[in-house]
Structure formats: C-alpha cells, structure tokens
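Dear V.,

Thank you for sending over the compound details. I've combined the ligand you provided, magnesium ion, with the protein sequence from our construct and run the structure prediction for the complex. I'm sharing the raw inputs here so there's no ambiguity about protonation or stereochemistry in the SMILES, which I know was a concern on your side last time.
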Amino acid sequence: MSPPANIRTWVFDLDNTLYPAPALYDEIGVRMTDYIARKLTLATAEAQELRERYFHQYGATVVGLARHHAIEAGDFLRHVHDADHSVLTPDLELRDLIAALPGQRIIYTNGGGGHAQRVLVSLGLDSLFDAVFDIESCGLAPKPQRESYDCFLAASRVEPTEAIFVEDTLRNLEPAHDLGFTTALVGPVHPEPKPAYVDHWAVDVKALLRGLLS
Ligand SMILES: [Mg+2]
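Below is the predicted structure of the protein with magnesium ion bound, written out as structure tokens.
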C-alpha cells in the first residue's frame, strides 16, 4: 500500500498518537489536580472530580476552568505541562517514517502551554513538522467540538479532502470524516463493527505509516 494519492497533508494528534502518554500524563494529571485544589481552595478529591468532569464535558479540563472559575487558561496550561519530559526518548524508526511522508505535516492537539513543542523536541521530531496547532490557537475550542475543526481549517488552509487525520481518540475522528478528511485510528481500541467514519486502523502510528508507505 502506498500513500493515498490524494494525500497532501498529514495531520497528527500528539498524545497517545505519536507517543504513549501515560508516563507523562500521570505527572500532568497530578499537577492539574494540585493547581485546581490550590486556586479554588478544594480538597484533592474534589479537585480531581472537577478535573475529570470538565474533561468529559468539554473535551479539555481547561475549558471548564476558564468558563466557570475565571482561571487564566495560559497560566494553567503552562503550569500543568511543565512536567519531567526525561521519561520520553527519541524513536528513530518513527522519525524516519514521518520524514518519509510526502507533503506537509501538522500537529493538531488539545494540549497547550508549549506542551506539543516540548514533547516534539524530547521525541526528536521537532524539525519534521510544518506547524503546531493547539487548544490556545483557537480560543480554547478542543476537538471534538466542530468549532475547533473549522478554526483549524481556516488557520491552516488545509483542504480536508487532500488530508489524512491520525488520532487515538475515536470521538475526534467523526467530525474530521464529516469534513472530508481521510481518517486513521491508531491504538489498541478497535471498535467492532468499524464505524464508517474510520478509514484506516492500526495498533500504533508506526504500524499505520509502515503500511501506508510500503
Ligand atoms: Mg490523543
């Protein structure tokens, strides 16, 4: 299988798509809970409950905090993502696979606060992407809100029918497919039957790219 002939742009999610996020996210989660507890004067358990509720309700905790508690999003995002990135190491095979992709490559993530840029450096991938689009690029509208995709398309000038959208989060693929993207789900979740809005599926991003490039 060679890269689909119509694909000129490769849009990648970051966390759990280009690297396994749990190692880093355990610390980021603790930092989020501690920040919420301190700012809102809550017990740790209450802060954690709020963090998880806003994540599920809005797609990103920061959206609920900004909307309901006047927390300054940039400060929150910078603080919580200031985690120990030494748990990440460069993956040379992934770097070679991404370097071999024809066309432009863009990161589109619900993270913020410089998180994507730091992770790309830690993974040795920072020179391979043409742009990083994060939750602060578009007024805190996260995937899967349609507003986020509309803003991404307007800012990047990507033509979705000439682009592939690579994600580990199933719910983020349906709006992308509706807009005309080719979609690829990466990771262990393989819903049966496969939803019509999932065009490709692989156990991880390297398996996906190996298949598309071979
Ligand atoms: Mg992800």
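A first observation: The chain has a mean pLDDT of 94.

Warm regards,
I. M.
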